[in-house]
Specification:
495 residues, alpha+beta, Cathepsin B, Chain A, 2 domains, 17 strands, binds zinc ion, hydrolase, Papain-like_cys_pep_sf, ubiquitinyl hydrolase 1, EC 3.4.19.12, USP_CS
Length: 495
């Protein structure tokens, strides 16, 4: 440890916005564990009160003030920070309280070594949480009554998860306003847009996504300013398509598709180049655009509706040490279809394989053993309402694995929930994107369920009814015609 100390007098701006003369004592501490945190201690010559200011070199430019004298509570700097208008997509940064940690780190946590506040705390302010979820804060006597045996960090995790459930529940998935008579094909504008049409058809058939676009992201609440030269808002264009599609007007659907194509180009999708693309890449790109362009209050609802929060624990078979990670945010579950499940596993079995698997060649934090396998298990701390599952069929060289995987119409993930997660995690299939051929020379179509319960197949302009036999081929044999399922969309069954 290196410790530098010097005393100097500076004119500083204190937290109450009055310039005052402070005596500054600088301490620079470097510890290998923390990656080097810098602490500056301030002392007021008049009152004798001292403040400690931490800055965090890598992940955050923001500063936490912590007063040593507890008689008077200073206003913390992040409470004063104005609410951000936008959030960049940072899968982990959305929830600093759901941070990655091992049990040992949590037990040894130094109460003064506060986590850098990150963006979600600013979002939390919008929910009126103020500084409640600063992790690592020592508990007061009153807090102990409230939190019981749980640490404050654990409590705020529970709190964050409840908030996710609440805001997702507020958007009701209803097929009202989605009449079967409006379902229609979509023209392939450039000849290579089947991947996008297949994806859009699947998204258009998600009642909750439609409800979110129509009721939450209304044009008057959009902050993407086209007049100032910003590219058009991706969510707004999707909203226009949703509106046109379910009105049943072919002409306005065509216009909305032309607009979407233009907007995606403006927003630099594949740098304006043509060519066949992957619908999952397109979906990820769209979600990234939502996170960049939407007001934070709109994006967090979308996130709660469509993103998992997963806790995982890895058990060392050699010493029994359990290393855990909480709060991983995951959108599409990208499922490996290798190793094959003996006897021909269905999608549900591959999802289970994904959530519980052996980790090889990983060094144990505790006994340093890297030879034995470790069992990893992932649990659903938050179950989104719309689940997207991708079957990983393409390898790095673009070669396709056409192995048929039967698709479950009902997917039950209730056994995979954490003990705190009480929301029903049974899912119902609502749409599938299927693929035929090779990565570059292939074709995508989709199948989706309408308000009347009838499944339709959408092959660009062409729409046909899916017969019972075709549906059975998909759910029992894992292929339909020459097509293999690639992306599956599920809707949570509410009870
Ligand atoms: Zn918008
Ligand atoms: Zn071990």
């Amino acid at each position: 440890m290196v410790l530098l100390s010097r005393t100097t007098t500076i004119l500083a701006q204190n937290t109450l916005s009055t310039p005052k003369l402070f005596t500054m004592k600088t301490m620079i501490e470097r510890s290998s564990a923390s990656g080097g945190k810098m602490g500056v201690q301030y002392k007021s010559p008049s009152s004798g009160r001292s403040f400690k200011k931490f800055s965090f070199p890598s992940s955050s430019k923001r500063i936490v003030f912590k007063q040593h004298n507890q008689q008077h509570q200073p206003q913390s700097s992040f409470q004063k920070t104005p609410l951000p208008l936008r959030l960049k997509l940072q899968p982990r940064a959305m929830s600093p309280t759901l941070r990655s940690t091992t049990k040992r780190v949590r037990e040894d946590a130094n109460p003064i070594a506060e986590e850098p506040p990150t963006k979600v705390q600013k979002v939390s302010e919008a929910q009126g949480l103020k500084g409640d979820n600063v992790p690592g804060t020592p508990l007061s006597g009153k807090d102990k009554k409230v939190y019981g045996k749980r640490t404050k960090a654990e409590f705020t995790t529970v709190f964050d998860l409840r908030r996710r459930r609440r805001i997702a529940n507020a958007v009701r998935p209803t097929r009202k306003g989605m009449p079967a008579s409006a379902q229609q094909g979509m023209r392939n504008l450039t000849g290579v847009l089947c991947y996008r049409n297949a994806l859009l058809q699947s998204l258009l058939h998600q009642p909750q996504l439609r409800a979110w676009l129509m009721t939450q992201h209304q044009p008057q609440h959009c902050i993407q300013d086209e007049e100032k030269g910003a590219p058009a808002c991706v969510a707004c264009k999707l909203r226009t398509l949703v509106q046109a599609y379910w009105s049943g007007n072919k002409l306005s659907v065509h216009q909305a598709l032309v607009d979407i194509n233009q907007t995606f180009k403006e927003n630099k999708w594949q740098n304006g180049m043509g060519g066949q693309q992957d619908p999952e890449d397109q979906l990820t790109w769209m979600v990234n655009k939502f996170s960049e362009q939407l007001p934070a209050s709109h994006y967090i609802i979308f996130e709660a509706m469509t993103r998992f929060v997963l806790d995982s624990s890895t058990t060392c078979k050699s010493c029994g040490y359990v290393s855990s990670t909480v709060g991983d945010i995951e959108g599409t579950l990208a499922i490996d279809i290798k190793p094959r499940i003996p006897g021909g596993g269905d999608l549900g079995a591959y999802v289970q394989q994904y959530l519980t698997y052996k980790v090889c060649g990983y060094k144990c934090d505790h006994c340093k053993d890297a030879t034995t396998d470790k069992q990893r298990s992932r649990k659903l701390a938050h179950s989104p309402d719309i689940v997207t599952i991708q079957l990983k069929r393409f390898n790095w060289a673009g070669q396709k694995d056409s192995h048929p995987v039967p698709i479950n119409t009902l997917l039950n993930l209730n056994a995979n929930r954490t003990s705190n997660n009480k929301s029903n995690s049974g899912y119902e299939l609502s749409a599938v994107v299927l693929h035929q051929g090779s990565l570059n020379g292939g074709h995508y179509i989709s199948m989706a369920k309408g308000a009347d319960g009838q499944w339709l197949e959408f092959d660009d302009n062409h729409v046909s009814r899916v017969s019972g036999g075709e549906m059975a081929a998909l759910t029992d044999k894992g292929k339909a015609g020459g097509f293999t399922p690639y992306l599956c969309f599920y809707q949570r069954v509410r009870k």
